[in-house]
Structures are given as C-alpha cells and as structure tokens.
Amino acid sequence: MRNHANSPIYWTVLTHEEWTIHLAATENGLCYVGSPNRPFAEMEAWAAARFAGCTWVRDDEKLRPYAAELLQYLQGERKSFTLPLDHRGTPFQAAVWAALCRIPYGQTTSYSAIAKEIQKPAASRAVGAAIGANPLLILVPCHRVIGKDGKLTGYRGGLAVKTKLLQMERNP
C-alpha cells in the first residue's frame, strides 16, 4: 500500500431517522461508511490500519454529495450509487466487493454464490471474511448476502440494520 501519512481523510455525520452514520472520503472518493449509531472511534480504528498517519478533517460540504446519495437510498428514492469510491483491499477482497455491487437492488445471494461468481468455488469462508472487511456499508451492498439456507448472517452494522435494509429494498 502507498504511504498515506498526512493525507487528509474528510468526514461527516449523516443522520437519518434513528441512525447516525459516519462517512469518510479521500480525494479519490468515499472510503468508509460506518455502522449506524457507532462512535467516531469505529471509523478512526478502521483508518488507523489503512491510512496510518492520516489527518482527519471534518468537511460536511465536501461529503455532501455522498451524504445526499446515501440519504436518497435510505428514503427509498435511489437504487444505485454514482459517486466515486476509494475502497482499498486485497485483490481477492476487491473481487468480492465488485461481485457485491452486481447484486440487484431488492435481491439477495449467498456466500457460496459469490465464491462461484468470482471463480473461487471453495472459498465461501474467505468470501465471508472479505465481506466482513467491506468498509462501505450499504454502497457496497453486503447486506444482500445471506446464508444458503436463507437465514440472515452476520453484518458489521448488526442484524437489525441488515433486516431493515433488506425490508426497505423489498418494500419500496
């Protein structure tokens, strides 16, 4: 990874209904969407491993376009996102995250289906780990991945959030 020392990470807080969500972006795009109602420290800890020595700059205006698209989604007015993302991970993680972005709005898939799609059919557990490392909740829709048996499985934002997102997508 490149050295990101002193590279600014811009952040803001989006509030929607009972949720507050931290958002962060680099000059290249949105890099982090926090779990609803989690503290700034969650985002800070995530960035410490990926952007060591970064400078935090609260900039509500710079993040306004990202917050606007996410708010439109949460209000049922948007089904896809158009702004640039800056998600950094391994090539395997990037392949999984790209596959997540191809899951249509309102539909779900399984870990094993994602593994097959990225041509690693025996890698369901590794797919689960890559999904768990997804820094862009909602925009990279890991909430659309469920167990092969149809049961809800883990979600960084919590199963109540996953349930709400899936219900919102199924009942626009």
From TrEMBL:
Its EC number is 2.1.1.63. GO terms for molecular function: methylated-DNA-[protein]-cysteine S-methyltransferase activity. Gene3D superfamilies: Methylated DNA-protein cysteine methyltransferase domain (3.30.160.70), Winged helix-like DNA-binding domain superfamily/Winged helix DNA-binding domain (1.10.10.10). The keyword DNA repair applies. It catalyses: a 6-O-methyl-2'-deoxyguanosine in DNA + L-cysteinyl-[protein] = S-methyl-L-cysteinyl-[protein] + a 2'-deoxyguanosine in DNA; a 4-O-methyl-thymidine in DNA + L-cysteinyl-[protein] = a thymidine in DNA + S-methyl-L-cysteinyl-[protein]. CDD domains: ATase (cd06445). Residues 91-170 form the Methylated-DNA-[protein]-cysteine S-methyltransferase DNA binding domain. Keywords: DNA damage, DNA repair, Methyltransferase, Transferase. GO terms for biological process: DNA repair; methylation. It is an enzyme of class 2 (transferase). Residues 9-86 form the Methylguanine DNA methyltransferase ribonuclease-like domain. NCBIfam families: ogt (TIGR00589). PANTHER family: METHYLATED-DNA--PROTEIN-CYSTEINE METHYLTRANSFERASE, METHYLATED-DNA--PROTEIN-CYSTEINE METHYLTRANSFERASE, INDUCIBLE. This is methylated-DNA--[protein]-cysteine S-methyltransferase.
